[in-house]
Amino acid sequence: MAFYLSFKEIWHSKGRYLLIAMIVALITTLVLFIAALSEGLGSGNREYLEKLNGELVVFQENVDLSIGASRIGRSKLNAIRRVEGVADAGQVANSSVSVVVAGRDPIDVSLFGVEPGRPGEPPAFEGRNLGRARANEVVIDERLVRLTGLAVGDTLTVRSIQGTNEEFYDLAIVGTTDGRAYFIQPGIFVPYLTFEKVKPQGENEQGGNGEYVSNIVAVKLVDPAQIDVMAEQLETLVGGIEAVDRKTAYEAAPGYSAQMSTLSTQRYFTFLIGVLVVGGFFQIQTLQKVAQVGMLKAIGASNRTVALSAIAQIVTLNALGVALGTAGSLALSLTFPPAVPITFTGDAVASAVIALMVIGPLGGLVSVFLLLRVEPLVALGLAQ
């Protein structure tokens, strides 16, 4: 009986109830896009470090885990490799350059200099990995592939500032890897001596002077379970370094934590708005049908029937709105260009949808409570 009454009322006032379902759909769209923006911006800042093929990231000491400020030379690297429990270690250097593509504006990318075959070099899922340390070749990530349409076998032209002049370097694309963005820029990977030649530098800088200085060192451990012990051991035995896990490394990136907390706060406030909107609508509905509820109770309807009817309405409309909003959001995301940092992931969408399915009943609890307090005689105006 409760479900019959619920759906009968919805069908009788289709326009009114469709309106609240559309409001829930818009709230759903807002929540999902904030979640997707949070994931897109977050992954754009952390992808390379998050997927690094090593358990520890070694920085220069006292640089607040800043990749740009850290400097680690070859001698430090050799000392790290000699520490018992270290399976392998590779130097990683980072800078920013532009990729020149015919017919469009240059694309800013994160340039990484890595040691071929060692930690820090990403796996090539198409083509092959980097070869010799001096080879003029590059592995690019899938983000750049989507932006440019470049593929294995093509030539990538890099624009770099050398002193006060623009220099252009042609690199052969030998492989592509998955998303490896850093600072919201696609990642490209070259051998470390090629990096010394290509990276932007001032007039007084000299590359290739025999002591390759990188920004960080990626360390692969014999036993990944001993990550905390090995971090402390490296800092003690090598000296002048700070070793941390990958998560600590990318969370220390400038602005990362503030950005994530801001977007999370926006999402929570959107949930709160959803609770208030749904709750307010059903409370108004309740006040408008006090007489009808009083009549139902007068002819024998129990509080349980009235409450179940109201809850069924709330859950149905909320579910309809969430479904419409989710479908619309995913369809709209297909129209966005690759440069927009919005990423829908299964976990993020599922958690947002579950949360949205809960806020409807929460918002409607007040109206259910009001229905239970309706007295038949008072509602019908018969009480003395």
Short recap of the structure:
Helices cover 50% and strands 19% of the residues. By secondary structure, it is an alpha+beta fold. The protein starts with a helix and ends in a 5-residue tail after the last helix.
Describe the structure.
The protein has 384 residues and is of the alpha+beta class. It has two domains: 2-46 and 257-379, no CATH class; 62-239, no CATH class. The chain contains twelve helices and ten strands. Strand 2 and strand 3 form a beta hairpin. The longest helix has 37 residues, at 14-50. The protein is elongated. The two termini are 31 Å apart.
| Strand runs, count | 10
Strand ordering within the main sheet:
2-3-8-5-7-6
Poorly predicted sequence stretches spanning 5 or more consecutive residues: none
Average predicted confidence as pLDDT: 86
Count up the helices: 12
Determine the strand fraction and express it as a percent band. 15-25%
Q: What is the overall shape?
A: elongated
Q: State the end-to-end CA separation.
A: 31 Å
Spell out the helices and strands N to C: HHEHEEEEHEEEHEHEHHHHHH
The helix content, as a percent range, equals 40-55%
- How many domains is the backbone divided into? 2
Q: Report the structural category.
A: alpha+beta
Largest sheet: 6 strands, mixed, barrel
| Rg computed from alpha carbons, rounded to a whole number of angstroms | 30 Å
List the helices and strands and how they pair.
Layout: H1 2-12, H2 14-50, E1 56-60, H3 74-82, E2 86-100, E3 107-114, E4 126-127, E5 137-141, H4 142-148, E6 155-162, E7 165-177, E8 187-191, H5 192-198, E9 216-221, H6 227-238, E10 241-245, H7 246-251, H8 256-288, H9 290-298, H10 303-333, H11 346-372, H12 376-379
Helix pairs in contact: 1-10, 2-8, 2-10, 2-11, 8-11, 10-11
